[in-house]
Write a structure and sequence with these properties.
This protein has helices at residues 22-30, 55-60, 82-90, 107-116, 154-167, 179-185, 199-206, 230-240, 267-278, 299-313, 326-333; strands at residues 2-3, 8-13, 35-40, 65-68, 94-97, 120-122, 141-147, 172-175, 187-188, 215-218, 244-249, 255-256, 259-263, 286-292, 317-318. With 342 residues, it is of the alpha/beta class. It comes from Telluria mixta.
Length: 342
C-alpha cells in the first residue's frame, strides 16, 4: 500500500479555476492539519487559503512532500513546472503527483531524487499488490460507498461518514482507492490502476483484519452499471467484503455520464444488484442508506425528494452538504432498525 510523507506543501502552479485545483482544495478541506502551506505562481487565480510559502519556508515548517494539487488539461506536466520540482527535490521533499505524466519518466528528476534520497510518487501508477482475492472473512467491520453512476460523491460521502463515526467515538478509518483520496489519507491503493486479476486482492490488502468494533470506510469507484468501469467496481465490492453499503446518486441524471444509451438504474434495482453481487463474499451485506448530490435541486425540491425516496425505500436519504450524514451513522449504530436486505 502506498504511504505518503506528510505534511504537504500544496503546489498550485498557475491554476485558473477551482476545477483545475480540485485535488489541492480537497486535501486542504479534509486534512488541513497535514498541510503547511501552498505554493502558487504569480497570476494564479485559485487559493486553498493556506499560507503562501516557498520551498525553503515549507521545509523549515516541517513539510515532507510537495503535492501537485492541480490537474492541467490532458494531465500533462508543463515544462515550466520543472524548476520548482527540482528545487523541492534538492531541498529534501518527496513529490506526490496524480498526473497522467509520470514523474519517473523524467530521467534528470529521477537522478536528482536518488541523489537527495527522496521519493517521486506517481499515485496513478503505483506498484500495487499483485495478490488474488481469497474471500476469507476478516475481523472488523467495513462500509463501502457505491454508485448508480460515476462522479456522484462516493469519496466525499466516505470521508463524511468516517468523520461522523469518529465524532461518535466509534473507531473508523477512511480507506482510499483513488488518487485524491490517497493524498488525503496519506495511504491507499489506486484501485483502477490495479491489474484486473488482483483488484479483489488489493481491496482485501487495503482493509485487513481489525478490532471487532472498528469500521473501515472504503472509498468506492465506478459503478456496476457502467460498461467501462463495472469490472473495477465488482472487484472492489468483492475484496472489500462490506458489511454495509451506502448508495450514491444524483437525482435527474437519467443516463450515465457521457453515455446516453445507458439509462441510470432505479435506486431499488441498484441496491438489489449490489447486494446480490456482494453476498458472494459477505452474505450479511446490507444497504444502510442513500447519499445524494442534490446540487440541482432547490431546498423545497430536495426536501420533497428526500422524504419521498426515504419512504419508498425505507432508508435514510442524506446529502452530506445539506444536513450531513448523521442519519447514516445512526443506521450503523442501530443496524437492526434501519437497513435494506432485498
Amino acid at each position: 500500500m502506498l504511504v505518503l510523507r506528510k505534511p504537504y506543501l500544496l503546489f498550485l502552479g498557475d491554476a485558473r479555476t477551482p476545477v483545475d485545483a480540485k485535488t489541492a482544495l480537497g486535501v486542504a478541506q479534509w486534512c488541513p492539519d497535514d498541510v503547511v502551506g501552498e505554493l502558487r505562481f504569480a497570476g494564479a487565480a485559485v487559493s486553498t487559503g493556506m499560507p503562501a510559502m516557498g520551498i525553503a519556508e515549507a521545509v523549515a515548517a516541517g513539510a515532507g512532500s510537495l503535492l501537485i494539487g492541480i490537474a492541467p488539461a490532458g494531465g500533462q506536466l508543463p515544462p515550466h513546472w520543472l524548476p520548482t520540482l527540482f528545487e523541492a527535490v534538492d531541498a529534501g521533499l518527496d513529490i506526490v503527483s496524480g498526473l497522467h505524466t509520470r514523474l519517473n519518466d523524467f530521467p534528470e528528476l529521477v537522478r536528482a531524487a536518488t541523489a537527495a534520497q527522496v521519493q517521486l510518487h506517481d499515485v496513478r501508477h503505483g506498484a500495487w499488490p499483485r495478490v488474488t482475492g481469497t474471500g476469507r472473512k476478516r475481523a472488523g467491520r467495513r462500509l463501502l460507498t457505491v454508485g448508480t453512476d460515476c462522479a456522484l460523491g462516493k469519496k466525499y460521502t466516505a470521508l463524511a461518514v468516517t468523520r461522523s463515526l469518529q465524532a461518535r467515538g466509534i473507531p473508523a478509518t477512511f480507506r482510499a482507492t483513488g488518487q485524491t483520496g490517497i493524498m488525503i489519507a496519506g495511504s491507499g491503493v489506486a484501485i483502477d490502476a490495479v491489474v484486473a486479476d488482483f483488484i479483489a486482492g488489493a481491496a482485501e490488502h487495503l482493509s485487513p483484519d481489525n478490532a471487532g468494533d472498528h469500521w473501515d470506510v472504503i472509498e468506492g469507484q465506478g459503478s456496476l452499471f457502467h460498461p467501462a468501469y463495472a469490472g473495477v467496481s465488482l472487484g472492489l465490492l468483492h475484496g472489500s467484503q462490506p458489511d454495509a453499503l451506502v448508495l450514491c446518486h444524483e437525482p435527474g441524471r437519467t443516463a450515465l455520464d457521457a453515455l446516453p444509451a445507458f439509462p441510470t438504474p432505479r435506486l431499488a434495482d441498484a441496491i438489489d444488484a449490489y447486494l446480490r453481487a456482494g453476498r458472494l463474499t459477505n452474505p450479511a451485506i446490507r444497504c444502510i442508506g442513500i447519499s445524494v448530490n442534490s446540487s440541482a435541486l432547490d431546498d423545497a425540491q430536495w426536501a420533497a425528494y428526500r422524504d419521498r425516496t426515504g419512504a419508498e425505500l425505507g432508508l435514510p436519504v442524506v446529502d452530506p452538504l445539506r444536513g450531513g450524514v448523521e442519519a447514516l451513522t445512526a443506521a450503523i449504530v442501530q443496524p437492526e432498525e434501519t437497513h435494506h436486505d432485498a
